[in-house]
Amino acid sequence: MTDSFLTEAPDEAMALALDRIRRGSQTGDVSDLEGLALDQVVVNMGPQHPSTHGVLRLVVTLDGEIVRDVIPVVGYLHRCKEKLAEKRTYYQYIPIVDRTEYVAGMNCEWGYVMTVEKLAGIRPTRRAEFIRVIMAELNRIASHQVAVGTFTADLSPLGTAMVFYMFRDRETILTLLEEASGARMMFNYFRFGGVRFDLPPGWEQRCREVMEQVPKWVDEYRSLVEDNAVFLTRTVNRGVITQQDVADYAITGPNARASGVPHDLRRTRPYSVYPELDFDLCLGEHGDVFDRYRVRVDEILESRRIILQCLDMMPRGPVQTGTLRPPYVITPPPGSAYTSQENPRGEYGTYIVSDGSRYPYRLKYRDPCFVNLQLLPKLLRGSKIADAVAISGSIDLVLGGIDR
Amino acid sequence: MALTDEVKRYLPDGIAARLKYPKLADFERPNVITTTADLVFNWARSHSVFPFQYGLACCAIEMLSSGFARFDIARYGMEVFRPTPRQCDLMIVAGTVNEKMAPVLLRLYEQMAEPKWVISMGACATSGGPFYDGYNVVNGVDKVVPVDVYIPGCPPRPEALFDGMLQLQRKIQQLTFARPEKVEPLYGADAPWHADAIGPQAQFGGRVSKKRLTP
Amino acid sequence: MSLQVGNVRIGAGELAARLAQGFAGELTDVAVQEPDTVVARLAREKLKDVAARLHDLEETPVDSLTLISSVDYVTHYECVYHLYSYAANLYVELHVRVPRGDPTVETVSDVWPGADWHEREAWDMMGIVFKGHPDPRRILLKDDWIGHPLRKDYVDDVRNHPYV
Prior knowledge:
The complex is a heterotrimer. Chain A is α+β, with helices and mostly antiparallel strands. Chain A folds into 2 domains: about 10-75, no CATH class; about 80-404, Cytochrome-c3 Hydrogenase, chain B (Orthogonal Bundle), CATH 1.10.645. Chain A has helices at about 10-25, 80-85, 95-100, 105-120, 125-155, 160-180, 205-225, 230-235, 245-250, 255, 265-270, 290-315, 370-375, 375-380, 385-395, 400-404; strands spanning about 40-45, 55-65, 65-75, 190, 195, 335-345, 345-355, 360-365. In chain A, strand 7 and strand 8 form a beta hairpin. Chain B has 7 helices and 4 strands; from the N terminus they run αααβαβαβαβα. Chain B has helices spanning about 5-10, 15-20, 30-45, 60-65, 100-110, 125, 160-170, and strands spanning about 50, 90-95, 115-120, 150. A 4-stranded parallel sheet of chain B has the order 1-2-3-4. Chain B starts with a helix and ends in a 43-residue tail after the last helix. Chain C has one domain: 2-Layer Sandwich (Beta Polymerase, domain 2). The mean pLDDT of chain C is about 90. By secondary structure, chain C is an alpha/beta fold. Chain C has a 5-stranded mixed sheet with strand order 1-2-5-4-3. In chain C, strands 6-7 form a two-stranded parallel ribbon. Chain C is built from 3 helices and 7 strands. Chain C starts with 11 loop residues before the first helix and ends in a 33-residue tail after the last strand. Chain C is elongated. The interface of A and C includes residues 118 and 340 of A.
């Protein structure tokens, strides 16, 4: 079979990168080194790459080892979720919301369910609120383990043992979630007015046992990397996000908290039973890669505190308000609502416009990864290509959310 | 080396008549040599498959989980996930394929060396999954590349992935050096249906989009 | 610069009153929605001016743009700008109507740099043109996709589907 791809014309993103080089060379903005005429090379870290978490394509303009410009190209996982919302009833759409940020499915479902409940005026039961918080925080722990694990796996390909320990510990949490909801990753557990199943007998005891071990896990993770001089050299003072960037680009979540901005939607825009719970915000100081890693690991301990409090405070009672009966069709009154909540990656919001029919009229996601990715060109400019992988891993991207 | 006249010139007299030289045609039917060679080569091929790290979406996380400690894929000899297709035997398509990604997938498939296999993991890669009526979704990766094993599930548990891999191992063990009775043409009326995915037939217009865009 | 969150303790009603007073001619239908959102309607000609003044508002600058949604009501489009003020810890939602025959609107990516990709997505999905945008390309679909999918009258072109 002839290889007909060799002389393919550059596509739009590559053409844009080449055009920027041409314009730069016209204005004299070429290489730093005097006396050497170096060309800038456009390299495609293509949609299939071991280190871009998912199908993200980075068109990188390199000057030797230094990155001059990055053009992220997304859309390789665009699954038309917003258009599908107009063809599914509100209830039928819940499993699809799960797959937006597939690593943190419970949090995504909660965002959607919260908006529909606000539109339709449904209030969840108190026991269901506590169960929702427990599930969301368990999923936050699991999600941070994936995020930090794959980030350290990128720094040296599967060389650190960290990712193995994190995935092993994640399996205990996924077993808990599977016992409660029936699935390991795509839970389909939240319903309008509550959750689908009550906790199985003995689940609370098992959850407490797992939470007993969490501090030991975190100590193990910290001891694996924080003494390592190579890890520190690669992460300290790299990829600094300033507070001005946080405001300009609306960065939220651990990325913003690592820069010292105390913005956590569980505190600033409290929803559910978070006002009654006692937990601290984990803040960093410098906003570099190390701080983002550290904030995520600290948040695992804070989530544990929240879960133990919820297990103590949880009342008995029904887990679903009695309003929803087969054929499970709700028709919220016409109007629009936007709610947002704290995903492990930032502010995850849903804007729904309803026209009174069974199907949503318009559903729009505010996805934290989509917004955080905008900052990547600015962060990577001037750094070396080896840091590009570390920095893009530390921002914690999930392409399901970016592309929807 | 065949027993041609030129070779016979160098042999001592009288031997050529008594020499039972095997002809090439003898190897075309299955015999003990081909079956033994099959056994050895298929054992090597099936138990040391190098998968291609091609996780597109949520199924990729389950593929990762199957590679780590609890569900250990190294038991089956497949822990060597290579990032480049040139070093791989098996492409596990884990996740939804859409119109933007399909040419990339085809290009990566063509970069793999024969013999190569494709596992379509999950409902999205098999048939479009929960997104089957999206405008941008390709309903199944078998519209782009030929698939050997389909694994249903959304996402399939790691145990289901292993089941699919064991089926693939059994399929690999059907390969043989002997020439088959009938040769399957690559395209045309007698071709298997998936062969339309590659070759000149892949690019033609005139097909109506079958996606219903209204409820 | 140190970003404080919620150090200016005013309620949403107070902020709504300030906005109604300060932008009397431009922001219409100023209302308060649930605990912390001020909703207002804005004409598209005044968008750029109001955006710049909101960004530099005294005491509670609206310094962050969370989301730009685009909705297709069949007679017109609507761009909804969800803004956030760190100092006041309050959200501001601006609804800008865009006529169907002329779907252009000014870009706000020079006021809030984070608007860049949201506007590209609104162009990609809904076909709303943002004048002055630094990089108007499709973001989620293929470069040569025909049509804007989230419009209510979208018909899927067969040329978009080489792989059915």
